[in-house]
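Chain A, query sequence.
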Amino acid sequence: MPKMTLDLTDTQLSALSESASYAGLDSAHDLMMRFVTREEEIAVLRQKILDGMNSPIVGVVDEAYFQSLRARIRDRKLA
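Chain A, predicted structure.
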């Protein structure tokens, strides 16, 4: 795995270490890894939202749709 080195001031490193401790993590490294992972997850979610926005409309979610779902559930309970 590639590595990255950050030059931080003592104050910055202390703040990161304190934040890591507050989050229940062992080190500032763990905090940064969590941050990078979260950013990756946000990028994936953002892309899924954009994909959904650009996809064709295949149906309308209105009161009739929810009534049909309720009816299907009732029918399953009776079966």
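DSSP finds three helices and no strands in the chain. The radius of gyration is 24 Å.
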